[in-house]
Q: What sequence folds into this?
């Protein structure tokens, strides 16, 4: 078996981009019922299969194996047997754009549904209205580079990433606990990047169809591997030691409809692909020196682990590290009833220093069986203020990702505070 080296999307040479494009085009042309087709694999995440695991302990290991399946499908295309998925890290240093130009060219710019797939029910044609843009019901679309950069800055996503990589407690990293005093986990910045990219990426129901979804999740898996490296978390015993008395259902299964191979929770902690290759992320200091820590510049690999669980996290909080002249606080919004809301939405909070902050909620436009068990949620966001300490929330509103405000009454009786 060999190493599969995954690079930053900005580090691919012309030949590597051309081979990756050939692989994408190859699986996009396959019949939609074939399990190595672009449609079938993308559909596992939301519509029409709804296998994905979000806001539960299975999030990281489930998506790791999912990315491996997609990479294997790319390699099934003739002449692409050595292709690997690059990763999309939106804060790569010395880059003038968030995404390179080739990500806005075919086949990476968009995916158009096969005519046979367009006959299937429930494809979210309503998304164009929700996003307030000219989005085809049958072809994916996303924001421009400038729009993505502005959203990432507005949400302070880079700070979220730092916080979650630093956390050593699995109960915090996993985002699977209702205690509002814990961190939200690596899935926190994951959600905000989905929202920042916008378009179909902003809805888990159809996010998997955007071609850069896979680059994004290659990067989330990279975060997972860096966290494992930093905190020595590869085996069941090591993970439990990082979780204390927190219950981890190690015997639960990771399911991918149509695929016969059986996986358990800890299978998603290993660095081996389904056929036994070793995954190596070519991570360099320009990605982010803080994240790398003691990880060598030449690349990051991690040993094979040993099976995952399921439950919707209910309440979250993160922390920031401030310099001596800064004040840190956390906005906590509790008791949001999301049952009546279709698609992702934004919670806008105005605090007493006249600043406004947006908190993004990543959810599908069609009710998900897993999510419906947790209709009442709490969310939070850490904030750092240069001028004065924030003491209270003065206004709380809800809006669509396109900025159109929503009727607050449909969210029940949520309460916001500074903690």
A:
């Amino acid at each position: 078996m060999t190493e599969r080296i995954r690079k930053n999307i900005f580090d691919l040479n012309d030949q590597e981009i051309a081979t990756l494009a050939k692989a994408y085009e190859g699986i996009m042309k396959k019949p939609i019922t074939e399990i190595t087709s672009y449609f079938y694999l993308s559909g596992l995440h939301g519509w029409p299969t709804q296998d994905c695991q979000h806001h539960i302990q299975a999030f990281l290991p489930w998506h790791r194996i999912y990315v491996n399946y997609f990479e294997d499908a790319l390699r099934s295309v003739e002449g692409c047997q050595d292709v690997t998925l690059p990763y999309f890290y939106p804060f790569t240093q010395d880059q003038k754009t968030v995404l390179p130009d080739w990500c806005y060219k075919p086949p990476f710019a968009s995916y158009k549904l096969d005519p046979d797939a367009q006959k299937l029910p429930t494809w979210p044609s309503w998304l164009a209205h929700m996003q307030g843009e000219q989005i085809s019901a049958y072809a994916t679309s996303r924001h421009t580079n400038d729009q993505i950069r502005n959203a990432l800055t507005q949400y302070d996503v880079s700070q979220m990433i730092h916080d979650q990589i630093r956390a050593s407690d699995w109960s915090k990293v996993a985002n699977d606990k209702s205690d509002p005093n814990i961190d939200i986990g690596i899935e926190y910045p994951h959600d905000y990047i989905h929202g920042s990219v916008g378009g179909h990426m902003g809805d888990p129901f159809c996010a998997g169809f955007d071609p850069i979804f896979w680059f994004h999740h290659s990067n989330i898996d990279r975060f997972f591997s860096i966290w494992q490296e930093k905190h020595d978390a590869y085996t069941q015993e090591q993970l439990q030691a990082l979780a204390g008395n927190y219950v981890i259902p190690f015997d639960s299964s990771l399911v991918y409809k149509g695929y016969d191979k059986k996986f358990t929770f800890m299978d998603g902690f290993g660095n081996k692909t389904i056929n036994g290759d070793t995954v190596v992320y070519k991570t360099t200091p320009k990605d982010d020196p803080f994240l790398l820590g003691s990880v060598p510049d030449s690349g990051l690999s991690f040993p094979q682990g040993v099976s995952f669980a399921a439950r919707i996290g209910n309440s979250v909080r993160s922390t920031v590290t401030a310099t001596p002249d800064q004040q840190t606080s956390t906005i906590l919004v509790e008791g949001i009833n999301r049952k009546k809301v279709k698609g992702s939405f934004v919670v806008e909070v105005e605090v007493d220093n006249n600043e406004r902050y947006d908190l993004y909620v990543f959810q599908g436009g069609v009710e998900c069986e897993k999510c419906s068990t947790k209709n009442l949620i709490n969310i939070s966001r850490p904030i750092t203020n240069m001028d004065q300490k924030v003491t209270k929330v003065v206004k709380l509103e809800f809006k669509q990702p396109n900025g159109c405000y929503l009727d607050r009454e449909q969210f029940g009786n949520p309460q916001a505070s500074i903690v």
